[in-house]
């Protein structure tokens, strides 16, 4: 039995869906034809299917006012992960410095070993802890019938319904909450501003290609846990099907790079791991709460006694390996905070 728990940002209500037989989506334009929960991988053409979980049973419940700390003990592979990341960073920089691409979003994994598999009660505690720790993020816990689970706490909207029609965002660049305190978006480094502008220009162009004329917000910041990002919002009225817009947007340069097709091919070469559902997207479609699809960031996959955390960062020709590594560490603390 597949089971999904999710909580929309800035709400106190959890939604729980169970589904015996998920549907496999062969084309993203099919999204929106059937109501349910979507779980899509980074590489739509790759080995991992885009799954739609119809809400065969559905319930809502209030998230408890307090969460119980799990204090899970684990060991990790930090040294091995740093070595792999450094090698992938070096290969990525060769492409950037040759101007083959202008941005690459390089990701890495961090593997944790628990002393024992988590119980169902512990999984639920993780979900509640993530809801408390990240009230402004979309939080989801997805139990798949292959016994693997994904915990997600992400701030990045891919596409959602709003009173004006649809809303999406360009989200990029990262700074710690302490570093960003009191700083206006325009005072961030040229590298950060350029990284965010690449994403913003791409999304604007893709929306215009669909005949949409979005309202574009001023550059602003968005806080997600202990980090802050640069953000631009796009809202637009539209009668287009959800799936048509999703197919045009995914993957954005925020999770892939630019140009997106070339960057995706480079990532297949340089990244030593399978992204699977990391940097894909997930969320409810056509349910009572509306349509809210979020990019699968700040996530971990749990299988048995092993948890694999994922994080990435945008590389430009001026990027420095240690700085980018530190950024991934900050992002992974989202999941580590939930485990402690």
Describe this protein with a few key phrases.
340 residues; alpha+beta; Anthranilate synthase; ten-stranded antiparallel beta sheet; 7 helices; 20 strands
Description:
By secondary structure, this protein is an alpha+beta fold. The protein has a single domain, classed as Anthranilate synthase (4-Layer Sandwich), CATH 3.60.120. The chain has seven helices and 20 strands. The strands form two sheets. Strands 1, 2, 6, 7, 8, 9, 10, 16, 19 and 20 form a ten-stranded antiparallel sheet that branches. Strands 3, 4, 5, 11, 12, 13, 14, 15, 17 and 18 form a ten-stranded antiparallel sheet that branches. A hairpin with a 4-residue loop joins strand 9 and strand 10. The protein starts with a strand and ends with a helix. 45% of the residues are buried. The model has no long low-confidence stretch (mean pLDDT 94).
> How would you sum up the major sheet?
10 strands, antiparallel
CATH architecture annotation name: 4-Layer Sandwich
The total domain count is: 1
CATH class label: Alpha Beta
- Rg over C-alpha atoms, rounded to the nearest angstrom: 19 Å
How helix-rich are the residues, as a percent range?
25-40%
Number of helices: 7
State the shape: globular
Mean pLDDT: 94
What gap, in angstroms, lies between the N and C termini? 28 Å
CATH superfamily, called what? Answer: Anthranilate synthase
Question: From N to C, what is the helix and strand string?
Answer: EEEEEEEHEHEEEEHHEEEHEHEEEEH
- The CATH topology assignment is Anthranilate synthase
Beta-strand percentage?
Answer: 35-45%
Structural class: alpha+beta
Q: Which spans have pLDDT < 50 for at least 5 consecutive residues?
A: none
Number of strands: 20
């Amino acid at each position: 039995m597949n089971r999904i728990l999710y909580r929309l940002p800035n709400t106190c209500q959890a939604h729980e869906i169970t589904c015996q037989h998920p549907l496999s989506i062969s084309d993203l334009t099919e999204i929106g034809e059937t109501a349910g929960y979507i779980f899509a991988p980074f590489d739509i053409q790759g080995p991992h299917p885009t799954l739609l979980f119809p809400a065969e049973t559905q319930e809502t419940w209030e998230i408890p006012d307090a969460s119980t700390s799990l204090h899970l003990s684990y060991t990790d592979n930090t040294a091995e992960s740093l070595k792999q990341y450094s090698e992938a960073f070096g290969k990525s920089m060769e492409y950037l410095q040759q101007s083959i691409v202008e941005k690459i979003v390089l990701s890495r994994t961090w593997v944790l070993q628990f002393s024992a598999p988590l119980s169902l009660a512990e999984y639920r505690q993780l979900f509640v802890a993530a809801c408390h720790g990240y009230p402004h993020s979309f939080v989801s816990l997805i139990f798949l019938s292959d016994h693997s689970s994904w915990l997600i706490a992400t701030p990045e909207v891919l596409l959602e319904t709003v009173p004006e029609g649809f809303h999406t965002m360009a989200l990029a660049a990262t700074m710690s909450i302490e570093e960003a305190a009191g700083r206006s978006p325009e005072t961030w480094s040229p590298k950060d501003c350029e990284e965010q502008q690449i994403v913003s220009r791409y999304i604007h162009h893709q929306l215009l290609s669909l005949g949409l004329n979005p309202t574009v917000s001023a550059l602003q910041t968005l806080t997600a846990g202990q980090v802050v990002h640069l953000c631009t919002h796009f809202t637009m009225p539209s009668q287009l099907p959800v799936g048509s817009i999703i197919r045009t947007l995914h993957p954005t340069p925020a999770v892939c790079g630019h140009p997106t097709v070339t960057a995706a091919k480079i990532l297949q070469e340089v990244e030593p791991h399978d992204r699977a559902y990391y940097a894909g997207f997930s969320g409810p479609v056509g349910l009572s709460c509306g349509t809210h699809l979020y990019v699968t960031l700040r996530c971990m996959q749990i299988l048995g006694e092993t948890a694999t955390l994922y994080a990435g960062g945008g590389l430009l020709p001026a990027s420095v390996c240690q700085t980018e590594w530190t950024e991934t560490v900050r992002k992974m603390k989202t999941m580590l905070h939930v485990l402690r």
